[in-house]
Structures are given as C-alpha cells and as structure tokens.
Amino acid sequence: RGVDMFDCVMPTRNGRNGQLFTAEGVINIRNKKWEADFSPIDPEGTAFVDRLYSKAYLHHLAACGEMLAAEIASLHNIAFYLRLVTMAREHIAAGDFTPWKQQMVARLQRRL
C-alpha cells in the first residue's frame, strides 16, 4: 500500500556519481556548465546543504575528487526524496495526486 524507499541506494549512489535531483530537474554537477554557477544547490531544498553550498563549489569538489562532494550530494538527494514522498502523501490526501504526479515526472525527466 505504498512506496518503500527504506533500503533504496538510488539517492546516495546517484549523489556519489554527481547527480542531484531538484524541483526543476536533474543536475549532473560534474558538467562544466556548473563551474561558475554560484546559486544554491536547490533554493527550494530542505536539507541544510541546499542553501549553504553553491553549485560551483560542489562542481569544484567533484572535479577535484573530494569525497565531500559525494557526501553533500547524498545528503541533498535523501532530503529531496523525503520531501518528494511527503508531497506525494499530501497530494494523495488532497485528491489531486494524478496531475501533481504528471507535473513531477515531467520535471524529473529534465536534464539541467
């Protein structure tokens, strides 16, 4: 009767590989386009790392092979998925899950 992410490695595995899930789409932080982007990782994020660190800083850490990049990305992704399932629960209760889901799937398929 639900979705179980308790034992899912996807948020941390993707984080270790430089992939971050955001409300606007998926970021590959290793791409050069993030090198000079000093905006927060995810301004809508709920993890402390989301507004504390910039995409440029995380890109730098990943480019240098610094383990902190994987830790920050993993923390961000776990918080993102916790927020995502919380929002899903709220939309199910409100009776408008289907349109919300269609919007979120479209966003999460975007590569930024």
From TrEMBL:
UniProt keyword annotation of tRNA processing present: yes
Pfam families per the UniProt record, alphabetical: TGT
Gene3D superfamilies per the UniProt record, alphabetical: Queuine tRNA-ribosyltransferase-like
GO MF terms held by the record: transferase activity
One BP term from GO: tRNA queuosine(34) biosynthetic process
Alphabetical keyword list: Transferase, tRNA processing
Protein name: Queuine tRNA-ribosyltransferase
